[in-house]
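User: I'm curious whether this sequence folds into something compact or stays loose and floppy. Could you predict its structure so I can see for myself?
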Amino acid sequence: MKRRAKKLLEEEEETLCCCEYVNRHGQRSHVAACCCDCEDMDEACDRFLKREPQKPESLSQVTAVVADRIRVPWLWGGARKVDLSIIPPLILLPALLHLAALHFLIGVVVLTALPGLVLWYYYFTHRKKGRTLFFLSLALFSLGYMYYLFITEVFPRGDVGQLQLAVVSVGVVLTLLALFHTKRDPGILRPNEESVHSKVTYYSPPADRNPSLNGGRQDVTMTIANRTGLSEQVEEELKESKRKNWCQVCRLVRPPRAGHCRICGVCVLRLDHHCVWINSCVGQANHRSFLLTLVLFLLTSLYGISLVLQSVCPRQNLLIALLYCPGVYNQYSTALCFTCAWYSSIVTGGLLHLLMVQIINVSYNVTEREARIALREKTARSAYWGLIVDTGVYSRGFRSNWSEFMNMGDKVIPPSLTDLV
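Assistant: Here's the prediction. I'll summarize afterward.
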């Protein structure tokens, strides 16, 4: 009993409270001690004050320390680490939108520079093939912040009814649910033991043993390649298929149309592309829900923009109001709503282009990954500046392509080499 009590006491001592965590050095620490015992930061500040050159690794060490110590209290398993890429959108987006609402010229500069900065950061991270939560944070916070301003700034004006508010709210909730379903699993391939090692056992009496000693049965394990009757042509086809579809990273044989994502580090069935806005791949298991998320967001966004423009520019047509709305900058509240309508229109235009590309690719039964490879190898027909790409490999007509897309299964078990033999 004493040993058991002592063991329970040790387990309680090792259990982390909501504000404790294990740092990158394997030591137990506390959230309140985030500014204590920081030798790397102290050394960097000391060199800065003494006007001495910094060490090449000083910046990376300080960044690693800050990233390790920024945590939020959590009830289970101690304090959780917060990704630093989440924070910039939470600060920059409200600040830039409120700044753009001060004057028309400031709004033009901000709304022109903001998409440029986002695109620059996208190409910067895409070139390094690194994962970041910046774009997912920007997407979710944009949706939530626009909905917050719609409730606090537009709805109190009295031009939007309860039913219209309910429609916008339902659209936001459905968009989030579709996004959650999209992020669950894109169709990741798992290694199949049977495709790597054959477990087939054949029985034949060996030459140096008596069959009667083992009940007339002796185990002699043979590989598939050594099985009698296997033709050389099948062997060559298997070798060629394995060499072409073998993934060195995941250590598995990919089925047709599957691909390896260098950002996620996994192989995905019918890989379309890696979407930074959801921080996940778009593959066979979530491609339909991805299109549904785009459609729901675009419908909700377009309806919300129309309600905002009708409220701040009631005398103008919707299309004209977005370009010309006299007196909108006389009040800061109306200027902020008008600026948010413009920001939502820019985001909606970008996602509308993405949806159009996806619909065209599904109509031709080609994935984004296959289209890029075909254009690079010059094996596809393209039209309208590369908007339409037809590889001619899997296309069976418009109706059959969409039928295949809507009926493709969420999970497909790739055939093993044993099944091919």
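Summary: The first helix runs from residue 2 to 14. Residues 7-13, 195-230, 413-421 have pLDDT under 50 and may be disordered.
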